[in-house]
Amino acid sequence: MGLLLSSNPSLSVSSILSPPPHVFSFLSSFQIFLIPPFPPPPGSDSGSIIRQFAMNLIWVLVLILLVFSNGHFSNGVSTNSSNRPEEVKIGSMFAFNSAIGKVVKVALEAAIEDVNSNPAILEGTKLNLTMHDANFSGFLGMVEALKFMESDTVAIIGPQSSVTAHVISHIANELQVPLLSFAATDPTLSSLQYPFFVRMTQNDQFQMAAIADIVEYYEWRDVIAIFADDDFGRNGIAALSDELAEKRCQISYKAPLDPQATRTEIMDVLVKVALAESRILVLHTYPTWGLDVLSVAHYLGMMDSGYVWIATNWLTTVLDTDSPLSSESMDNIQGLITLRMYTPESELKRNFVSRWKNLTTHQMANGPFGLNTYGLYAYDTVWLLAHAIDAFFSQGGSISFSNDSRLSELNGGNLHLDALNIFDGGKLLLNNILNVNLTGLTGNVRFSSDRSLFRPAFEVINVIGTGVRTIGYWSNYSGLSVLPPETLYSKPTNRSSSSQHLNPVIWPGQTSHKPRGWVFPNNGRALRIGVPNRVSYREFIAEVPGTEMFKGYCIDVFTAAVNLLPYALPYKLIPFGDGVNNPSCTELVRLITAGEFDAAIGDIAIITNRTRMVDFTQPYIESGLVVVAPVKKLNSDAWAFLRPFSGSMWMVTGGFFLLVGTVVWILEHRLNDDFRGPPRKQVVTILWFSFSTWFFAHRENTISALGRLVLIIWLFVVLIINSSYTASLTSILTVQKLSSPIKGLESLRTSNDPIGHQQGSFARNYLSGELGIHESRLIALNSPEEYAEALKKGPKNGGVAALVDERAYIELFLSSRCEFSIVGQEFTKNGWGFAFPRDSPLAIDMSTAILKLSENGELQRIHDKWLMSSACSSQGAKLAVDRLQLKSFSGLFLISGLACLLALLVYFVKMVGQYFRHYSGEEPESSGSSRSSHFQTFLTFADEKEESVKNRSKRRQLERDSNRSNGGGMESTSAASNRRCTEMASNRSVSFGSEV
């Protein structure tokens, strides 16, 4: 063994433990070990030769045991090399002569050559690729797939067509053979129905999401889809419809094309498209005839200014493969936006691109062709499959097949279905395919949780002149951006509208101005616009007798808005109604949804149930429901000055004047000479002080802190009351007042009186449905004259108590009828607008025009022209408001009352303390003293001036000190007591005596 290794330095242990073909080579040459490799040196004896022979024999036996124990007697546990065959068969099917197929063929051959020449990838196992031409046929593709299944194929690369992939995926599921498609982009192939289908290219779901983001970015709402009517086209457009719906956009018209459509058939379809409203066209088709569609569109004038064409990535496939196109073809695609699957720049990609010319040198029998992204994905598919097969063998997988019992039951025919076998390792190989993570020509190749390629991205391309220009990128991570997607992956996800950007575009017609995206259908039919045929309030809208013309406020607003549109608007006004009764605007709006009218204008209120049926423009006049009732004038009289306050307010205010005056007198009486004197004078002082504070004219000064606190709070209350009274009295004496028994909506609801409303107005449904008023109380009226008559009669004479109608009508009604007035507040807020079908772009343009009319003052001028009248507007009459009630000032009175109570409490506690401090020790201790005498003494003390009490207390203290020093006894005490009684009697005579 040592000799073998020394004679062959490249041989290692891993090569010794090689697959069975190498084992046989070792076994066939084991004779080497039985013969001494070199002649014995001179002098060697026969014993040394025998020992060397025995050692060589032992090494050979050990080698044989190791090889066979690992290779054949391991009970299913294999090493990395034991089950690796010399080659693995894989298949591929696509259309060799297609724009995709001719590129893919070269890419697959190059990938197979690169993989097989790299011993590190499969450790000697070769990939044997067999390619079959499906020739654009789904049936031939299915037949070729069955042929692959008969030849022990472990995986199939392809098919190219999504239609074929749907069929073959069922075969792959049954026989458990992975199907790796580099070009089948149908989103439905990613469903759980096809577990063995692996998409090695970008899913159309992401491409359609990119288109939807572009449509939203340019603020378009409707698109027209032109597509191949097969699984590829239908399912792709279905995905586009879903993505647009998330952006509140839609496909307004679908134009399917036969996958093998002739030029005549294409023209028939595009003529219908040209008659549609939208000008945003999405073309989702095949490279084989996509240019034919654009050629017919150019012939029909559909490549001119105003159109927007968005082509899916089939166009970049043609541009990358067959460039340069003919000048005629380039003229047909000027200004288009298209997408290209994004593959980041890398050294691997640049090297392969530089090899491309050499790889295609012998493939150019029909002319040179370039490299497209499908070729890059096909190349990476081979490498991904090679890595998955390598991992498959490393995990002990083996290439073995077993019969399908269900197919064996069908061997009675000539189809030989029993030759189709199930790949036993199919599930293991599929799992390894989905778990591969490598870097290829297209970047990082791995799968996300939904089995789509990780982080899909597209380039947004604009065709200009003789070439193309990248105007931005799209990725499902960051949306639209002018930066490559990989530069944004390190930043937080930001899909806000402000973060979406694209570079400027040159649109069809060689214009840089963004197309509006829609026009009126060029089919010779003007818009049918419904107009209410009113019999009342004809200032708003009225048909001119003997003509098909209309006039009025609403008509002038509509005409002025139409004149501001940047395009001509063909329309015809059609009256709606019998001319006897006012028509229902809700019914008029409903007829738009039924297709009888294309729009509706007039006095149409924007309310909830109508907005569910149509789209409205910006309101051009504000309105809302109000209550109108008869009113009478309230003239001023001799007692008008009492009206500002209610009776309770007057009583409480007067009571507080007296209360505050009394409290201030109590707080000031013992300190302030202004609040002392004979009883009659004190009563006059209280009354004068109380009511003089109304005019802030009180003469008496306040000395005590408590008195000042109470007075300042009361003066603030007086200030508020005085101001309110003055304002209310001014209004009463200077403005004419109106009075009505109906105060507003609430008083109308609680009564049982009949209520009038306009015939055909939504007011009836609102009153009955929203407010719960019984319909028997609701009376329909058809004209202003009927309004006035019903209100004058009143509910007792067969009329109505009040009328509920929209403010716009009522203002016109009241302009010449001063005996009625609006009572209460407006209880709904809405406006009038023009109605258009749902998602109509005309509604947006008309709203913009109405806003311009409002900004430039034209809307107000039209209003003044039709609705300005002044019979009652200059009189300044207002509905009488309620008097000022006590509850409006209850907080102020509460604060003042609490201040008075607190001041009195503090004053009483302070005075009791003084009483006990000055007199409690000097009361006579005779048994004859009683509670009444104590209370009388306390009252006398409370009436006494505080300064006198303090002086007397000082004198008594001096006398006590003198008596203690002279030894005086009871006589001095008795004399002091007599002196105190005399002084108190003297004070009483001063305070309560009669005036002299």
SSE layout and pairing:
Layout: H1 2-7, H2 13-16, H3 20-28, H4 46-71, E1 87-94, H5 101-116, H6 119-122, E2 126-133, H7 138-149, E3 155-157, H8 162-175, E4 179-181, E5 197-199, H9 204-217, E6 222-228, H10 231-246, E7 250-257, H11 263-274, E8 280-284, H12 290-299, E9 308-311, H13 314-322, H14 327-332, E10 337-341, H15 347-359, H16 373-394, E11 401-403, H17 405-408, E12 421-423, H18 426-434, E13 438-440, E14 443-445, E15 457-464, E16 467-475, E17 479-481, E18 527-532, E19 542-543, E20 550-551, H19 553-563, E21 571-576, H20 585-593, E22 599-600, H21 608-611, E23 615-616, E24 621-623, E25 625-630, E26 632-634, H22 647-668, H23 679-692, H24 705-734, E27 737-739, H25 745-750, E28 755-758, H26 763-770, E29 778-781, H27 784-793, E30 802-806, H28 807-814, E31 820-823, E32 830-832, E33 835-836, H29 841-855, H30 858-867, E34 878-879, H31 890-919, H32 931-943, H33 946-966, H34 970-992
Parallel strand pairs: 1-2, 1-3, 3-4, 4-5, 6-7, 6-8, 8-9, 9-10, 18-21, 18-22, 27-34, 28-29, 28-30
Antiparallel strand pairs: 10-15, 11-12, 13-14, 15-16, 16-17, 19-20, 23-33, 24-32, 25-30, 25-31, 26-27
